[in-house]
Structures are given as structure tokens and as C-alpha cells.
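Sequence in, structure out.
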Amino acid sequence: MKLITVLAPLIATGAALSIQTPLLAVDDKLAVPGNNTLYFCSDPSNYTLNVTRIDFDPRSPKKGETLHVETQGILRHPIVDGAKVQLTVKLQIGSALIPVYHQTIDVCEGEDDECPIKKGSITLTKDVELPGAIPNGKYAVNIDAKNGDDEESELLCLNTVLTFG
């Protein structure tokens, strides 16, 4: 299922580094349950994917290591054609955040995809090989997933601040 192959590595990106001095304002009430360094962007009760926990093993992996990510949750509504995930990464240089990476991924496109993805319990598990050549620095990462329905309802939105090096 493409949802696994799309969301798990993106979520894993947030685990690859440890949280340092926040580049983004975070509210502890928005901390994602589980062994991770993620925060919801806003009240998660409005998301289509009700995340019950996200676990990283190890919690703070290093460049060149394998990261195991397990996400558990409940889909409140089916995921339909047109669902997209946007990954945005910004590098802190002084007090500025400079965009260094942006990718939009179609959740329902690919060899293993079958949309709609039915509502109900869902577990996403993925092992991610982290590149050894990630440049040192502080990064703000945003993962924003929207459903393909007419309202483009919010599937999930996560933020983290991470440091390599």
C-alpha cells in the first residue's frame, strides 16, 4: 500500500535527528504520542488519520543507520484518489530558514496502490536507510498530507526540528 511507502519514510525523516532549540514554536499538548520527536501542526482531532502512536527505533538514529518506524492509528474516512503528501525541509542559517527541499507525493499512485484506502485501524511499518551524506545543520521539517476529496481534508500534519552533525 502506497500510504506505507509514502508516509513512513517521511515521518522517519523527523526521527533522524534530535530536537534542539526549537526553530518553530511547539506546544507540548501537540506532541505526537510514542517514542518520537514529532509534533502535530494543529489539533489532531481534525485530521483524517487519528495517530495513536508513532515509534522510532532508535529514537535518535545517525547518518548511515537504519531507522525502524511504526505508526498506528485509525482512518476516520477513506483515503481517495488525489491524496497528496507534501514534505518541506528548511535549513537554519543564522536566524533565517532557507527552503532546501520540497517534494509532493501522490499517495494513490504507484505499483502497490489501491485507492480508496478503507477507513479503520491502520499500522504502517517501514525500515528506512538514512544516507550517510546528509549535510550538517539544523532543519525544520513539515509533513502535510491532504486527502483527495472535494474539501482536500487534512489527513495529517507533522512538524519537527532536527539537527545533523
